[in-house]
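Quick question, first post here. What does this chain look like in 3D?
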Amino acid sequence: MRRLALIALPLMLAACGDAPVEGGQGVQPEAPTAEQAMAEATLELQGTGIVVPAQAGFEELAVPFGSARAPTEATLGNVLGDVLDESTQPNDCGLTYTAYEGLTLAFRNDAFVGYWAEAPYVPRTSRAAMLADENITVVEDSTVGEEFVIGAPEGPDIAGLFNGTGDDAEVEALWAGENCIAR
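> Answer (accepted):
Ran it through. Tokens below.
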């Protein structure tokens, strides 16, 4: 239903605009189509789910952990594009997934329970800049690499990996919620 609303909104707004005047005077610039607007949309990765912020004339869309799979895929698919891979049979951790370029959504019993993000959905920030923030801590003796946590110890938090140990290392991945990570 929201997908229809996203597509219909620009059309309704365009219908309300002023009519072009002969000779090009007063011609309103074309509003982006719903597909164009959503293709340029951004995401906010949070410790409690994913938010598509208000942009290009669309309202904010929140997809919290616990959301049903079909609406989650429909809402985020508008921004993320084509599905690259998906599973319907649970893996060793009991999770199924839907993978898009740079973002994999995890589901348990058809409920959205976690995500794993890579470029272009991770910040292009150096390790030194990230660790300057007091809300980011390095996980000592992590078995998965140069792991860090964003957020207060009482959670919810977002975990991540740097692609190296030097100050100029960058964020390689972020995740929150349930994921199948071998430790």
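Residues 33-177 form one domain.
The mean pLDDT is 82.
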